[in-house]
Each structure stands twice: as C-alpha cells, then as structure tokens.
Specification:
- The complex is a heterotetramer, with 2 copies of chain A (about 220 residues) and 2 copies of chain B (about 220 residues).
- Helix content of chain A is about 20%, strand content about 30%.
- Chain A has a domain at about 5-35 and about 100-215: 3-Layer(aba) Sandwich (Glutaconate Coenzyme A-transferase).
- Chain A has 5 helices and 15 strands.
- In chain A, the strands form 3 sheets. A 10-stranded mixed β-sheet of chain A has the order 4-3-2-1-5-8-12-13-14-15. A 3-stranded mixed β-sheet of chain A has the order 7-6-11, with no helix packed on it. In chain A, strands 9-10 form a two-stranded antiparallel sheet.
- Chain A is α/β, with parallel strands linked by helices and about 220 residues long.
- Chain B has about 220 residues and is of the alpha/beta class.
- In chain B, strands 1, 2, 3, 4, 5, 9, 10, 11 and 12 form a 9-stranded mixed β-sheet that branches. In chain B, strands 6-8-7 form a 3-stranded antiparallel β-sheet, covered by helices on one side.
- Classes of the chains: A alpha/beta (about 220), B alpha/beta (about 220).
- Chains B and D meet through helix 5, strand 6 and strand 8 of B and helix 5, strand 6 and strand 8 of D.
C-alpha cells in the first residue's frame, strides 16, 4: 500500500475513536493528521503541551502569530473558548488525567503495552519532550503508526529500544489492524481494508488473539 | 465544546449525595459559591466530608453547612472564626483535621496534577508530623504529603463563559483554581455568564476543560 | 506600662527592621499595626496569604469590595502594582523563600527559636492557618509580642505548647527588649524605653546573653 | 516598590558570569528573551549550565548559545530541533541531561515553591529511573524528583510594568512563569514596558516581586 494512503487510513480510523467533548493531545507527524478527519457532529478539544487548549488549524500563510505555535513548532491558531497556561499547568493537565486521549507514533510497541518512541541509542536522541508524561497521564493512549518499518515488525513480543513508558498503551491502530492491549495480550479487533489475518500475523512479532467479533475497519 | 454546561442550582445539588467528599472554594466566605451552598443547606445533604480552607462564620457561606450539621468531617487549615465548628469538634460530633494552609493547597494541587505526593518542610518538628513519612534530602528533613481529592468541587467565578472558562476577581480566587483540578465533578457558580470568546484566552484562570457544569449565581 | 503604649512601642520597633523593597507578611493583630509605622522613604510590599501582594490599608467605610479581604477577613485595598494569585501560588511564594520577613505573635517562644502560637490543647484550637508555612518559609521570622502574659514569661527555656515550627525564629521584639536568636542562645540586643536588664531577666524564663553593644531601643 | 528595575541589556549580561546556571524561557524559540541571548552570544560568557525546555534551532534564540559553544551542560526535555546540540553531545563536547517535559516543569516549580521534591509516575520503567529514589504509595510507584534551581533566570514578557509585573501573550508563556520563581536573580525582557497600574492585578501572571530587572526588548 502506498504510504500516503496508509497514513490516511490510520488517521481516519483513529479519528473515530474520539468522542464528543474529549480533550485530546495529538503527537507530531501522523497523529496531527487525525484532526483533519474528525466526524461531523463530534467536537474534540485539542491540548497543545506547550501551553494551551483549543488548538486550531495551522495558520494561513501571512497570518502567523509569532507567539503562537504548536508543540511541533508550526504556527497555529487557537479556537474561541480556548485558554493559555504555563508549562507546569500544561503538564498538570496531562499527568493529572485531564486529557482523555493521546495519539502518538511509535518506534516499537509490545504485548505488555510498553512503548518505545523517543530514542535509538547511538543514533537518534532527540529527547522525550512531553511524550513520557502524555503516555503516563492520558486516560487512553492510542498508538497511530504504520504497521511495519522497512518491512520489519514494530509490534513486538518485547520492546528492545529504551521505553517511553511501561504498560500504558491501550490501542494500536495501523493501516493493517486495530489491536487492543489487554491483560490477556494483544487482541486483533479489526482488519485494515486490504489486510487478512495472515497478513497481520506475518507482519507482527507479538502473539495476537483474534477477537470473536473481528471486523473490517470502517473508515 | 458542544455540551451545554448550564444547569439550575437544584440540578447542581442533585449531584451531591450523602457521604460524598466535597471541596468548596473560598477564604472566610470570600469566593465561595453561596447560592449552591444555600441550596445544599435547604436540601439537607448530610455526612459530607468537607475540604475547604476554613469554615467561615456561623451565618456565612460554608459556615452554614457546619451549623446545619451536614458535615461529618472537616479538612481545613483554620476553624477559629466559626465557634460552632470548634464546639462540634470538642464534643466529638464532627471530626476535624487541621492542615497547614500551604500544605492544604499543595496537596489539592498534587491531586489535580497527577503527583503521588510532595515534600514540604512545613510541619517538621510539630504535631503535623504524626503518622507521616519523613524524607531527608541533602541533610534536610521534609514531610511527604499526599494528594487530596474530592468527588465534587464547588467553586465560584466572577465571570464564566459558556465553555466553563473562569475568570476570578481579586482575593476571591484563593482555593478555587486548584480545587477545580482535583475533583471528579466540578460545578462553578458564576456571578456573570458570558459568551464563548468574551474572556481573552490569556486571561482565563481556570480552563473550561475542568468545569463540568455552570450555575448562574445571584450577583 | 499601659497595654496600648506597649503595643505601639513593639509595632514601631518592628517597623525599623524592615528594609526598602522587602516583601513582608504581617500576622493578624499586633503585627498588622506595624504597617502604620514604616519610616518615610521605606517602601515595603505586603503579602496577604489569601492571595495577593500589594496589600493596602483597610477599606474606608462604604468602600468595601466584597471580593477583597486580608487574611484576617477585614475588607482591604490593593496598591497599584499589586497582583492577585491563587492559594497554591501564594504559599509557593511563602514557602519558596520569596517573603523577606514575617511578623507574627506568639504564645511562647524559646531559646532554640521554637515557636508556639497556634493552639492551647483543650482550650483554643483554631488551626494553624498559614502560620506554619510562614514561619518555615520566610527569610526572617520576627516575633512581635508583649513580653509577658498576665505577668508570666512567654520567652521560655523550652516551649510547652504544641509548636508552630522548630528553630525558625530569628528575632523577638517586645516592649521590654529586642532579643536575637543565635546558635549560642538568646542575645539581648536592646532594652525597651522603660526597661532595665534586671527587668528583662526577671520577666524571661530563658537564659539571656547580654550583647556587648547593648543599646536602648530607638523608636 | 521604589527600586528602578530598568537596566540596559549590557548591564543585564554583566550579571551572567562564566560557569553559572542559567534558566532561559521559551519553547522552540517562542517566548525566549532574544535580545539578552544575542548580547550573551556577543559577550561570549562561557561554561554555562543551561536549563531550558529545548535548544530551539541553530540560528534561533537559545540555539545560538549552543552553536557558539557557550554551554557546558544542557538540561532540557528536547534537543532534536537543533542538530548541533546532538553533535556536541555525541562527540562529548557538551553534557546533555534529558528530562521529561512535565518533570522538568515540576522540578523548576518545586524549587520556586520551596518543596523538597515531588513524586511523579512519569519515567517509571524507563531509563529516567536511573539513580533516583522510588517511593511506593498505595501500591503505585513514583519517582522522587528534586527541585531544579538556577543562579539566573532570563525570561520574556509581552507587557511588563515598572514594578516587574509580567503579562505573557499566547504560547510565549510556557516555562517563563515558573523559571521566574526558581532563580536567585531574574531578568525579564519586555516587549512593552508600561506604567505601574496599567496591568490589572487580576491579569498579572508573574508578580513583580519575582523580577529583579527589566530590559527593554526590540519589539
């Protein structure tokens, strides 16, 4: 599947997980795309960890505000009814369980809900930024990522990279599957539009429990 | 941002059940949600655990709940202005737990901010130490103080928009903003209700995501 | 000495301890009087623990603001350039060492700088309010009190009442003496306008070291 | 409130000596005191320990101090936007300590608030645990994180009155308010300087008592 198409499927499917009134923090990259696919009639409130709620679309060219960026550094807007606060309050909101869902990418995620998404020793050490707090603090942690990286599984029996957080992931959404992290292990709940159970198994290192009510992803 | 948060004072009081833990904002009655308190007195909800800075005066604000014997336990920093609280404590009718004001504030904040506790030098060498863990850091002792949560927080704002964003006025702010972060359900009594967008996002003190319901106050 | 005269001497002498630009928290009662005697050319900034700096005089009758009281519950004013904040921030200021001096009354104070001023078991249990935080957090703790209570010493070898804080008092100012708490013990630095060394010793239970440069109090 | 806090940028930079620990506000350059940073670069003060959320970009704000090799150690949550920081870290030229963003904010706040530390769930089960005390409360583990202080905090405000009261604009607030409480000396760069009284005491975000000096910014 073409990369752009895969990312669109993921973003659309993630969007359907979000409920009206949810406070949501979207990570940089693919997760940010989710905002474009929120269904009609659903209003979510985006939190930006650099200090506000009510994050709106990226600024139009020429209308940038030098004092208003998202956590990725892009010039953005704030919606009416939003509010600014300092970084301590921003992370009080995050760590205090006031964010209903966070959507983040992953380098690796495993059977126990462990997540690695912040560094590759010796290669990429950008820092964890707000990711560790988000994953620990948000009520629901959704991993939005392509199912494999260069053909290699990212959903593993056990993460090998340094963890972002232990046992915090709730749901994994890829272009091939929706997988829930449960106490019994990873449960395959939905298949992507072009995927079979065998495809998913072949591209997943972790064991998968097939849900009794396995469905096709609706996007 | 689609939910209508405006409810009547009767609806507000219906959320408060016998035996619940309730935080109420205010300092000697200033900044307390008097209309909700009066409705609570009228309805006679009982066996409440009250978390507040003080118990005001017998005829004022929180003080009325004491006089009306609706409180099973008081957690406060000061009860000296309401003789009835002292009488009930002395005669064993009401349990009173006294906490240094700064520790009370910090414990409430810790609950809202998702902290497991905070270390404070306040109370070391006093009766406040009793039953608490002491932790030494660089040769100095601190008390480990735990988060303080409530089922419901009743707060009062000068100006509240329909999103629940709150602007407080003068010293009526006091405990209201931190209590708004530390309870499962938060109801704000608004002196003035304004349209979304009428409070500058830079001047919002309590972001609307913390507020579940708004009651129109009397002023 | 007449009580009113004694209190005036104490308040005037305390006022001379405060330096231009100092952030000061004055306790209820006698300490509040200190604000009336600040020397010309000295500007101090008063902190009010219920949530602001820039505390001004008590409101004129008819000009009270329902949202603006001091920590004792009196209607007051705020000076231009002041600022309001919540209770967590107020005590962050206090505990964080941002208050240069606090002036408080005492029931008892002892040789080690221990202070008891918040309760008499079985009699008076109003709660510590902000006192424990203030005494621990302020850079300088000044006790302003009449030298004796009903003729009995209040400056003791060891406090018998429950402590407000251990070893935090820096200076004791009474109508009879200015006494500094040092590692060697209590040092008598100044004598009140009508007191002799013998008077002070007779009315003090604790041992006193007489300063080499013992002076008459200038008020 | 009598001190004149206004100084030149050259005077400001004179306070910053080789080897000092300096906190600088901003998030990817937004809300950083650029005029003071540029003067620091020009003067070449060196061996600084920098505490900041991130190191911005090579040509922007804090990033310039990195490129100019004035920093001995970086304490931040994220360095990924400035490749030079990563290069210096990898080649052992600059020490880098990475801290989760919420923990960084809370540690700075703890220093300003006089806390001995705070307990956070963030980082449990990750490399962030290393060398830290773990404390279990009600069966859940937390990391004990210690206060983070600086010799100097350099912050940036949109509007600052001559008393030092600061009003921030939009997401430029970020770490500035908490840093203003956690350093021995605080210098604010003001986009606009206004008379005392022009900022409503309810809208002050950083009270003037925290600000030692004000530098007129460029905008």
């Amino acid at each position: 599947m073409d990369k752009q198409r895969a990312r669109e499927i993921i973003a659309k499917r993630v969007a359907k997980e979000l409920k009206d009134g949810d406070v949501v923090n979207l990570g940089i990259g693919l997760p940010t795309m989710v905002a474009n696919y929120i269904p009609d009639g659903i209003d979510i409130i985006l939190q930006s960890e650099n200090g506000f709620i009510g994050l709106g679309p990226v600024s139009k060219s020429g209308e940038e505000d030098k004092d208003l960026i998202n956590a990725g550094g892009q010039p953005v807007t704030i919606k009416p009814g939003g509010a600014f606060f300092d970084s301590a309050t921003s992370f009080a909101i995050i760590r205090g369980g006031h964010v209903d869902a966070t959507v983040l990418g992953a380098l690796q995620v495993d059977e126990k809900g462990n997540l690695a998404n912040w560094m590759i020793p010796g290669k990429m050490v950008p820092g964890m930024g707000g990711a560790m707090d988000l994953v620990v603090g948000a009520k629901k942690v959704i991993i939005a990522m392509e199912h494999t990286a260069k053909g290699k599984p990212k959903i593993l029996k056990e993460c090998t990279l340094p963890l972002t957080a232990a046992g915090q992931v709730n749901l994994i959404i890829t272009e091939m599957a929706v997988i829930e992290v449960t106490e019994r292990g990873l449960v395959l709940k939905e298949l992507g539009p072009e995927a079979t159970i065998e495809d998913v198994k072949a591209n997943t290192e972790a064991d998968l429990i097939i849900a009794d009510d396995l469905k096709k992803m609706e996007i | 941002m689609s939910k209508n948060k405006l409810i009547s004072v009767e609806q507000a009081v219906d959320y408060i059940k016998d035996g619940m833990t309730v935080m109420i904002g205010g300092f000697l009655g200033v900044g307390s949600p008097n209309k909700i308190i009066d409705a609570l007195v009228k309805k006679g909800v009982k066996d409440l655990t009250l978390i507040a800075n003080d118990t005001a005066f017998p005829e004022v604000a929180i003080g009325k709940l004491i006089v009306n014997k609706q409180i099973k336990k008081v957690i406060a920093s000061h009860i000296g202005t309401n003789k009835e609280t002292g009488r009930q404590m002395t005669e064993g009718e009401t349990e009173v737990e006294l906490i240094p004001q700064g520790t009370l504030a910090e414990r409430i904040r810790a609950a809202g901010a998702g902290l497991g506790g905070i270390l404070t030098p306040t109370g070391i060498g006093t009766v406040v130490e009793e039953g608490k863990r002491k932790i030494e850091i660089d040769g100095k002792e601190y008390l480990l103080e735990l988060p303080l949560k409530a089922d419901i927080a009743l707060i009062k704002g000068a100006k509240v928009d329909k999103n629940g964003n709150v602007y407080y006025r003068n010293s009526a702010r006091n405990f209201n903003p931190i209590m708004a972060m530390a309870a499962d359900l938060v109801i704000v009594e608004a002196e003035e209700i304004v349209e979304i967008g009428e409070i500058d996002p830079n001047e919002v003190i309590t972001p609307g995501i913390f507020v579940d319901y708004i009651v129109r106050g009397d002023e």
